[in-house]
Protein: Helix-turn-helix domain-containing protein
Organism: Faecalibacterium tardum
Amino acid sequence: MGDSVRYPVMKSVKDAAAIYNLSPAYIRRLCRTGKVRFVNAGHRWLVNMDSLCKYFEAGDPGSVGQDEVVGGIRRVAR
């Protein structure tokens, strides 16, 4: 009975974009590419604000290393 459930803070794409002063299209792209968690609630996307915050704190993973494969394509040296 003493256990509490912690629900994530969810905001609309428009609200999340306004908080970080970014475009809604950029927030949607982060969601579509799997960098930020979200859920579809009918016709609306709800962004997990904890996930979005962690993404911006950690930064983008950056470029792919020489031996890594992305989407089945191996990066080659120039």
